UniProtKB/TrEMBL annotation:
<keyword id="KW-0547">Nucleotide-binding</keyword>
<dbReference type="Pfam" id="PF00005">
    <property type="entry name" value="ABC_tran"/>
</dbReference>
<keyword id="KW-0472">Membrane</keyword>
<keyword id="KW-0067">ATP-binding</keyword>
<feature type="transmembrane region" description="Helical">
    <location>
        <begin position="680"/>
        <end position="706"/>
    </location>
</feature>
<feature type="transmembrane region" description="Helical">
    <location>
        <begin position="637"/>
        <end position="660"/>
    </location>
</feature>
<feature type="domain" description="ABC transporter">
    <location>
        <begin position="312"/>
        <end position="556"/>
    </location>
</feature>
<dbReference type="InterPro" id="IPR003593">
    <property type="entry name" value="AAA+_ATPase"/>
</dbReference>
<dbReference type="GO" id="GO:0016887">
    <property type="term" value="F:ATP hydrolysis activity"/>
</dbReference>
<dbReference type="Pfam" id="PF00664">
    <property type="entry name" value="ABC_membrane"/>
</dbReference>
<dbReference type="InterPro" id="IPR011527">
    <property type="entry name" value="ABC1_TM_dom"/>
</dbReference>
<dbReference type="InterPro" id="IPR027417">
    <property type="entry name" value="P-loop_NTPase"/>
</dbReference>
<feature type="transmembrane region" description="Helical">
    <location>
        <begin position="32"/>
        <end position="59"/>
    </location>
</feature>
<feature type="transmembrane region" description="Helical">
    <location>
        <begin position="761"/>
        <end position="779"/>
    </location>
</feature>
<feature type="domain" description="ABC transporter">
    <location>
        <begin position="963"/>
        <end position="1202"/>
    </location>
</feature>
<dbReference type="InterPro" id="IPR003439">
    <property type="entry name" value="ABC_transporter-like_ATP-bd"/>
</dbReference>
<feature type="domain" description="ABC transmembrane type-1">
    <location>
        <begin position="639"/>
        <end position="927"/>
    </location>
</feature>
Amino acid sequence: MTIVFGSSTSTISGQTSSPGDAQRFKQKIDHLVLYFVYLFVARFVLGYIGTLCACVAAARTTNALRKAFLESLLRQGIPHFDKPGNGSVATQVTTNGNRINQGIAEKIYTCVMGISLFFSAYVVALAVQWKLALITMSIIPAIFGSVGIVMRAILPVETEITRLYSRGATIAQDALASIKTIHAFGAENKIVNLYDEYLRAAHEKGKKKSVFLGILFSSQNFFTLSGMALAFWEGFRLYQSGEIASVGTVITVLLSVTLGATSVLFILPQIEAITNASSAASELFSIIDKEPSRLDPLSPGGSQPLKCTGNIELRNLSFAYPTRPGVPVLQNLNLKIPAGRTTALVGPSGSGKSTIVGLLERWYEPTSGQILLDGTDLADLNIKWLRNKLRLVQQEPTLFHGTVAQNVAKGLGEEQKSLPEEKRMQLIQEACVAADAHEFIQKLPEGYHTQLGESARMLSGGQRQRISIARSIISEPKILVCDEATSALDSRAEKAVQDALDRVTTNKTTLIIAHKLATVMAADNIAVMADGQVVEQGTHAELVERDGLYAAMVRAQDLGTGVEQEEKREKEDDGLGEGNTLRPHHSTTPSLARTRSESKIGDLGTGVEPLTRGTLNYSLFKCVWIMLRENRQLYPWYALIGLAYLMLSGTYPAQALLFSRLIEVFTLASAAEAHRQADFYALMLFVVALANLAGYFCVGLASNAIGQALTYRYRKEMLQQMLRMDQPFFDFSENASGSLTAKLSSAPAATQELMAQNLGLMLNVAGNVVASSVLGIAYGWKLGLTLVVTGLALIVGSGYVRIRLDQRLETLTEKQFSGSARLAAEAVASMRTVSLLTLESAVLREYSECLDGIVTRVVRSSAMTLIPYSFSQAADFLVMGLGFWYGSQLLLSGQYTTQQFFVVFISIIFGSQAAAQLFTWTTSITKAKSGTNYMLWLRSLESQIRETDENRKRGPSGEDVSLGFRDVEFRYRQRPAARVLRGLTLDIPAGSFAAFVGPSGSGKSTIISLIERFYDPTSGSITINEDDISQLSPMLYRSRMSLVQQEPPLYLGSVRDNIALGLDYEPSEQEVEEASRQANILDFVASLPEGFNTPVGSKGTQFSGGQRQRIAIARALIRRPRLLVLDEATSSLDTQSEKTVQRALDEARAAGRRTTIAVAHRLSTIRDAEAIFVIEDGRIVEAGAGHEELVARRGRYYAMCLAQSLDRGG
């Protein structure tokens, strides 16, 4: 191009100085114009191919990196996930992946193109006039040296920022995944503050980049423009000395230097993005490059015996968790688990029962000793083979996003997975029938094809556990391990499932871990554990006869009914089992329950409108305007950028003017005048370089300050808004915690890129385009107007088309990216379930398919979107050709002078090149528009359950808490046809203890959700001290109560942090210890190396279920609640802990008139209740003033007691 341009310049200069034959001049111009057309075609085709290849390579590379990251993560083994602060997977695969994709697809390609243009321009210059070219090449070391120094300084800062954001995202994801707990304890602000600590640290780190970016931007512009001044100044001298023969040679070299300079300016905006991509890649590669764990579930190593009998022996087994090596969990334990027999493990929480399961599953390796399967050390067996032979039903079952059938099918064996769909569905239904799940599944809106959503929140704990049991037994494993498998089931379902388990475990090796001793009575061998050792062994009868620890546990759990043996036998004949005598209990409240099971049922049908999902569709200009309007504190920085760009927008017009003057200098007759003007105009170019030095330093400084402030503000604001949303928002699959966490990172990042760096650069380009156009039209309106209208129309039109196509692509891929992030986050969050079901390969396959679909769509769409983009990047050659052709006509007719022509032509050409540069940011523009619209949409949502001006200061009246339900009905918004509660009416007086019992899925946990106001009733009302809770401040209302859930989540931080979660102040040591003592966890915490400062790890998985539950109970008690809500609060506790905690709860209730509401399947925990409500199918079918009254009625409650009696059939 520079050669053609130089030749054209020489032709025009020669024609004006010696008119000659006009026809010959015209033919030469026509010939040169054709070269511009050829250049257009070449740049369009090659640019399209190059950009398309870059986009395809970027999509595939990022795709491969994401897959490799997840695969490497899945191969690290469970101990890796126990370590705190490993970062959010959703952030890693989404935000970091997007950064890398942008760096490879757009930024690196642009840089490669710019660098190649830079060097090719100098190659042309060297070929044309080597001496002048070598002199101007002195700027190259300065340019690349400054880039290297700045990038070396920025990269470690950016890497640390990426790490901090990833750690913060872990906090956010854990909170979003357990939003009920966060709402119940009013912990929104505490989580935001914890997240804010990481944001602030990242913000402070980010501000350190400002000066470096200022130096980077300013130095590059200064050096390149100085090179132009040097090229002209020295070129003129060489021309005058005769070393350069023609003006065209100088112009070619000068234009080459200009092009090289422009290409460097083209590279500059990409440097930061490439640095970000590099730090993001570093974060991913820190996992990808990690050697697989010795417990790699995807390793083909290890033996795979043809036969598995199922004989298990634990020999001198000792173990301590890697993160707490000084705390032994198992100590020289010896135990035999014979093949085809049932062995039970019982004992206090924390005695090591569940740890044995972890060692059997090979989640961990023993510190010393061995575990043998059929005489072979587990360490010598293939891990996948072992886990396929062994199936585990967990204490806290995890279900995955998908349908009921898909969740159960995840338990299929390798051979079963290849069966026809019809046969697999038959196996799924048979397993669900066996697990007593078929009946309630059939009642779901779409039966087995009902979508469960994240963590199956809309199912009860018992329903989730039954699906989990079906998933575990569907493959008919050789070894079945049940870790509190029926703890969440009611007595009827427990009996049905226990019978099913008895059937499927016939002639199978079975290991049962239980606190509910009724479930282990029939075991062939019961091992009682304490302090990591087996202290008793034998059958139920043998251990009861010994009158040791086991016998004491039996007595503590025994449920009596006060019924004569004959009546027991009659009931047993009816399938109700036996009971035994209960010590008399005298109710302090004669009649607490006022019930009404039948009521008017509102005909809602499907009229419940779902929560609005999606995003807004504001234009880019409106998004920018909103961002500017609400960030007034950044106006000084924007003012600085505005002033800098106002000055810098004159760069292209100044270059055009000076360039035209430079050409004119060569035509001057007076050597002295030519020398004087050459020196002056070279100096003026240097002045322009100095102006760019100052201007771009301000731009780099201010843009980074703005970017850091914006990303800090909007990340924090988005999390605040997400945590403010009520539960129905989180019931939609689009709002799964993994998807939200990914949005939390990607949306502010895209907005930051637009509002900080790209907005200023686009304004600068726009300013240069306008200034160049105005200058061209002012100097010669005919040529100027022609080039502006045609040139800008071509470039802007094609650029606009690309933006529209990019927006469509962004909309199409956004949902898939969100789905892939959710899938990866869900798999890692449920790593134990993934491993025990050997789902690693399936997860990778599903993740790969999801990403491959995105890549295919991106490639196809890029093939279309890059056509207008490539056209916009090549269109300036058409404009040049038109300009030379039409300009030559104006010169021939005498309407324009040479100077006039060159001022108009060069100013418009520079302007058109700037306009083409504008559309290199189309992808960033599209992502920023999408991200900003999402943030604004999220902000526009209003929770139905929220603080308002009317209720902000309105809390429950009085100190004590009484509750009332009036004709309460409830349906989930996503299942409007299914009535969960049907006209519920009841009263719970202040200071009383009320309990809800009944089958799984009957509505008990829904009642808890309504009491906590996670949802509002579909109709009817709930009152606290006669105040309708819908009229009260949710924060003030919930501050009166505490919740202990069946599966309590713990959060990243220390034991102390978790206990103090629901407090708005820092508790004293005495308060923390007292709450821990009441929850019977104080001695255990004191035994830890760091006491209350011991990190709990990811989700507290290093603690047993009972230990986690006791920490949760301490978390509830430290708030001194007036209303204590217990949803299976002691289901994971051993007998002794349960008695201790229950006694503490009773004492606290008696001392402070605390109202307690409990949901329980283990009836021994609620036999002191002063009111018991039996719930079935959303109705109260039986209620009474305590255990004795209901037993005396010989109704449903009585039947449940008989079913749970310990010495039934003994």
